[in-house]
């Protein structure tokens, strides 16, 4: 029987055959037999994530997904990679992100692991149990009562900002207001998260930290498109491309900076007191004091560091870009602006020139201004692409499509926010749509993902609303604002967040009361 292969040779041949046959089988399955093969999209997305990676590299990931839906106008879902599907329908929002027993199986995908730094943050943790515990611990730090305690810090930073704006108003020289919004938000979040600002407003130039935040998040996005979970970051750090290495070095520097800043915050904690002797009330103080009421658990330094890093990204980046879009649209829509100013002057008759801080408690009653913010976030959500969730092991039916288990599914905020079946004239900026009683307001609110949806909705929403609304209200009371180029049409360019695709200048004039 010498003609039979020896055991060692047999298993070698078998292994070689498997190496050759398995890729052929997998490719054939993905192309023709997988339930996902029935979902429209470029044929290459069935077997590779190359197209999605290319769109990410070109800073147009959300726009690319929008183009896929435009090419398939009757589709409620498109395939963006072998193991990911994006939906564009209200029912998909509730199915994937909603509350209740029916969505318990949809967990955060491995994409989030790329954003876990020194520990899990509220944003990056994939465990529903740990997320619920963290949310219980820190929810009081974002309550209405706490916002009242934060307001003097916001007012202090706004005073510094307005001194700069006064100089521009006196000269009436055109300037890039988005640039100054970024300086304001990085200084404000430094105060709220670390107990000390970066001096960006006074210096008139960005803090190194703000650049590192953007680069680190971009590294995380590149890592997140790989299918290897927590190994992604290490794998990406080995890629010998100069651009990737630059982003990796920025991530390391960013984490080290956060560590040093937080250590300093702890060292100076006893000095951070108010005149009445109580501890300084900022977001980090609330995190430090936070204790889970059910287990007694407190966050350690690594977790606090992770939360700090996440907080700086969420607050500084999204706040500045939202204020920029609001300024642009209010300049382009003077009728809406005049109505808001009229309401502000009625609400603050003693402060028609914006010389004193405006109360956020009162501003919350000015619905047109808040709707102007919401409308900007509908059209230009900071995170435009889908926040991915994994389908449960048994799979799930979403909008009539059976999706196997372990597939990353999601609804891109930038796409659903312009869904013509949900929003009338979806590409028009119209704050009044949010008070239109003839519209389906419930569905419109379901499809508004500017702050996320369900239990994972951004916990810092109220903090962001506070300083964004206060800033725009104060600017409108204090100055006449106009675009240097009245015919300017801004588009969107996607970094980690969606930003205007070009620099634009405004001109300020002191408002005559």
From TrEMBL:
The keyword Transmembrane helix applies. Keywords: Heme, Iron, Membrane, Metal-binding, Monooxygenase, Oxidoreductase, Transmembrane, Transmembrane helix. Belongs to the cytochrome P450 family. Its cofactor is heme. This is Cytochrome P450 monooxygenase. It comes from the Eukaryota. Gene3D superfamilies: Cytochrome P450 (1.10.630.10). The chain crosses the membrane at residues 12-32. It holds the Pfam family p450. InterPro entries: Cyt_P450, Cyt_P450_CS, Cyt_P450_E_grp-I, Cyt_P450_sf, Cytochrome_P450_monoxygenase. Heme binds at residue 458. GO terms for molecular function: heme binding; iron ion binding; monooxygenase activity; oxidoreductase activity, acting on paired donors, with incorporation or reduction of molecular oxygen. PANTHER family: CYTOCHROME P450, CYTOCHROME P450 12A4, MITOCHONDRIAL-RELATED.
């Amino acid at each position: 029987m010498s003609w039979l292969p020896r055991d060692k040779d047999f298993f070698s041949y078998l292994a070689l055959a498997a190496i050759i046959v398995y890729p052929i089988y997998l490719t054939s399955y993905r192309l023709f037999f997988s339930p996902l093969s029935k979902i429209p999209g470029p044929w290459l997305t069935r077997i590779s994530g190359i197209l999605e990676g290319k769109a990410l590299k070109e800073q147009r990931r959300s726009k690319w997904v929008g183009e896929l839906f435009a090419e398939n106008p009757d589709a409620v879902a498109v395939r963006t990679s072998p193991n990911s599907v994006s939906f564009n329908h209200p029912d998909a929002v509730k199915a994937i992100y909603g509350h209740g027993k029916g969505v318990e199986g949809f967990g955060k995908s491995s994409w989030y692991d790329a954003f876990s730094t020194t520990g899990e943050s509220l944003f990056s943790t994939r465990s529903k149990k740990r997320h619920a515990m963290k949310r219980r611990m820190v929810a009081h730090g974002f309550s209405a009562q706490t916002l009242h305690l934060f307001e003097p810090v916001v007012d202090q930073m706004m005073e510094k900002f307005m001194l700069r704006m006064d100089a521009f108003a006196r000269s009436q020289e055109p300037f890039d207001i988005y640039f100054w919004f970024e300086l304001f938000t990085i200084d404000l979040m430094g105060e709220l998260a670390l107990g000390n600002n970066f001096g960006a407003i006074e210096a008139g130039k960005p803090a190194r930290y703000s650049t590192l935040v953007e680069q680190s998040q971009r590294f995380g996005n590149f890592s997140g498109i790989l299918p290897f979970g927590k190994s992604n970051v290490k794998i990406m750090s080995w890629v010998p491309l100069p651009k990737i290495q630059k982003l990796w070095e920025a991530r390391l520097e960013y984490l080290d900076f956060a560590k040093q800043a937080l250590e300093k915050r702890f060292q100076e904690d006893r000095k951070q007191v108010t005149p009445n002797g109580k501890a300084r009330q900022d977001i980090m103080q609330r995190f430090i004091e936070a204790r889970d009421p059910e287990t007694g658990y407190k966050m350690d330094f690594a977790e606090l560091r992770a939360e700090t890093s996440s907080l700086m990204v969420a607050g500084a980046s999204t706040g500045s870009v939202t204020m920029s879009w609001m300024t642009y649209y209010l300049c382009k829509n003077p009728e809406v602006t005049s109505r808001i100013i009229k309401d502000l002057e009625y609400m603050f008759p003693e402060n028609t020139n914006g010389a004193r801080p405006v109360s956020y408690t009162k501003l919350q009653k000015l619905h047109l201004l808040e709707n102007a913010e919401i409308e900007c976030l509908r059209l230009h959500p900071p995170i435009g692409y889908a926040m991915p969730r994994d389908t449960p092991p048994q799979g799930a039916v979403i909008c009539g499509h059976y999706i196997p288990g372990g597939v990353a599914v999601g609804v891109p905020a930038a796409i659903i926010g312009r869904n013509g079946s949900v929003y009338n004239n979806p590409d028009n900026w119209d704050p009044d749509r949010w008070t239109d009683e003839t519209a389906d307001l419930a569905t419109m609110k379901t499809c508004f993902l500017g702050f996320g949806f369900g239990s994972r909705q951004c916990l810092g929403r109220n903090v962001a609303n506070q300083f964004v609304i206060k800033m725009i209200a104060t600017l409108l009371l204090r100055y006449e604002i106009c675009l240097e180029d009245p015919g300017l049409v801004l588009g969107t360019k996607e970094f980690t967040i969606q930003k205007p695709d070009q620099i634009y200048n405004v001109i300020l004039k002191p408002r005559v009361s």
